[in-house]
Amino acid sequence: MNKEKVNRVVVVGTGAVGCSYAYSLINQGVAEELVLIDVNEAKSEGEAMDLNHGMPFAPSPINVWSGSYQDCESADLVVITAGLAQKPGETRLELVEKNTRIFKQIVRNIMESGFNGIFLVATNPVDILTYVTWKESGLPKERVIGSGTVLDSARLRSALGKYFHIDTRNVHAAIIGEHGDTELPVWSHAMIGIEPIDRVLARQGEVNKECLDDIFVNVRDAAYHIIERKGATYYGIGMSLVRITKAILNNENCILTVSAYLNGEYGQHDVYIGVPAKINRAGIQELVEIQLNDQEKEQFNHSVSVLKETMRPVI
User: What average pLDDT does range 179-198 have in this prediction?
Assistant: First the structure.
């Protein structure tokens, strides 16, 4: 029996991130319809053609086409990857004014279609642009989500897995805060398997945590290292966006460190920032407010203050 309703995902922006996301989405068979939108219509048409040619090898059929903002009307999820990319030596926050202008127009165009689904924002600075999307769209905060520190947390788990020679899927650790220079690792809750990371270090004879500090710095600065070498990052974030998409469309109740709106949680108000949240078909079902130690609280509050100061001129 055919379903009357299919899952439609719209991607706005067919640059490297948008196309990496679309490619990963098809390879994992997550949605049934995928619409590509770009200011350069020929580019989105070409990408749709190319992706369709690989459909015989996909795990499940997906209808892919180059469309317009009107296609957002029936979309379950709109993923925004459009905007100017981070240049070598440029911080994510330095992009704020340029991409805020672009985003306001994009979100207006989407909402004019009658869209009433969930927004997922990936463009940097992601926390601020997610806030802009929420304000411009008028949608409930639960249905406007940023990619946040999902990728940063994945990078941390990957690095810890290599260090401890453990499958990264058995590493449970998170980075929260701004997706950028003020983010912080939550070492107080990091686990290797089901064992606290402090206990693992002690068992291995580590007398200090300098190794963890080095790991975190490399994770925090990973984008700079990648941009310096290849010009941009896109595979990791593309796969991160698919992970969030699966949590939404499959109604998983999965906990991911997305950029979410704080309204008193962690003692903060009126800001989007990376924190653990339960994700399902409704978007952000609830925030998971973990108990931070004093140092982590201080670092998190600093991250919030930097974001608020940066976004003040553009909001």
Answer: 95
